[in-house]
Amino acid sequence: MHSAKILLIMENVSAIKAIDLTKHFGKRVAVDRLNIDIHPGELYALLGDNGAGKTTTLNMLTTLLKPSAGEFYICGYNGITHSEDTKGVFSVVSQDVAIYNELTAYENLQFIASLYGLEKEKAQVRIQELLAQADLSDRANDLVSTFSGGMQRKLTIAIALLHKPAVLFMDEPTVGLDPAARRQIWATLSNLREEGVTILLTTHYLEEAEILADRIGIIRQGKLVAEGTIDELRDRIKAIRNVEVRLDKRLAIEEINTKIAHAHSILNMQVSYDNVHNTILFVQSEETKNGTKLISCLEHVLSWLKEENMTFTSFSTNEPSLEEVFLAMTKQAVTA
Ligand SMILES: Nc1ncnc2c1ncn2[C@@H]1O[C@H](COP(=O)(O)OP(=O)(O)OP(=O)(O)O)[C@@H](O)[C@H]1O
Ligand SMILES: [Mg+2]
User: Is residue 176 in contact with ligand 1, taking CB distance under 6 Å?
Assistant: First the structure.
């Protein structure tokens, strides 16, 4: 098709660019002035919790949903004013598996190839190539209804790749799959990345983003709250410390909830209570990490405990794991 054109375009423009992209559903702001700039060949993971705005973002970028404000470009095409051109350069693998159970794997691919208007011989070659890549050659003539979830997902990806898109969008590509199937999908994605396909995937698995992505964007309540390579994100959290305090007495849950809400409001830290271990965890928030030295952070926690007449049996501090920081960044303030 116009792959030469795509290559030309891609030499000097972003593969995916969103500028202040916003979506309101009534009063709810699902995506709030999102800015992303993804380079050609990059694998970018949009990481966020349930309801963070991942699917809404993807639906806008793939022209399914009209943005309330902002603009976006795919391989240089304006997604709003030139949506037809835009559609020619990308493919989507959505959260639902969109394949026909009553057809074989080969027939599914053949059917979609005919919709794209691919020439028969060319289509045959491409289909064989994709089946081999997906490790499905020996199951090509089996009905899709006999496929495992992982095999179905791989076929969905193969279908999305039929017309050699420059950009691939994937909404939670491995959700609901067992660890072995998940690894197979990861291998498929790594291969695509090697081939230079630009990939934007959404996920709520930190591990998935960590393993696959060149860059990660963390989205919370529709806003991009952090962005960078995994190493950059790690560097950002280096200065963050958490403090864990084990209380010596158990308090009524209402009382502890009130205290924790109070601590959260005055300490500018994420504060949560673990009922099982009777511990309070204080995590230094991003905003305070540069200005606040660890020692003053400890002092604040200690003086708060004293003020509240709370005695403890242990007090420890450590560097939180990426997982803990991710939780602190993606979740709202935890109050028990
Ligand atoms: N069609 C809609 N009408 C009203 N509200 C919507 C609609 N679609 C999404 N929302 C809201 O927008 C917010 C973001 O939803 P979205 O589906 O984008 O989240 P997500 O990050 O994909 O979550 P998940 O991980 O559960 O798939 C949520 O608060 C959701 O309730
Ligand atoms: Mg979603």
Answer: no
Q: Is the CB of 150 under 6 A from ligand 1?
A: no
* 25 Cβ below 6 A of ligand 1: yes
| CATH 3.20.20.140 for the 239-330 domain, yes or no | no
Q: Which residues pair with 314 in a beta bridge?
A: 246
Residue 4 is predicted with a pLDDT of 46
Asked whether 67 lines ligand 1 (CB < 6 A), one says: no
Q: DSSP for 24-85, please give it.
A: EETTEEEEEEEEEEE-TT-EEEEE--TTSSHHHHHHHHTTSS--SEEEEEETTEETTTTHHH
Ligand number, closest to the Cα atom of 24: 1
For residue 82, pLDDT over 90 is answered with: yes
pLDDT of 280 > 90? The answer is: yes
> Which among 210, 112, 212 is positioned nearest to 157, based on CA atoms?
112
Question: Ligand 1 atom 28: the closest Cα is on which residue?
Answer: 51
What confidence tens digit (pLDDT) does each residue in 143-195 have? Answer: 999 999 889 999 999 999 998 999 999 999 998 888 988 998 999 999 999 99
What residue spans in the chain does CATH classification 3.40.50.300 cover? 3-235
Say which residue, 323 or 121, is predicted with more confidence: 121
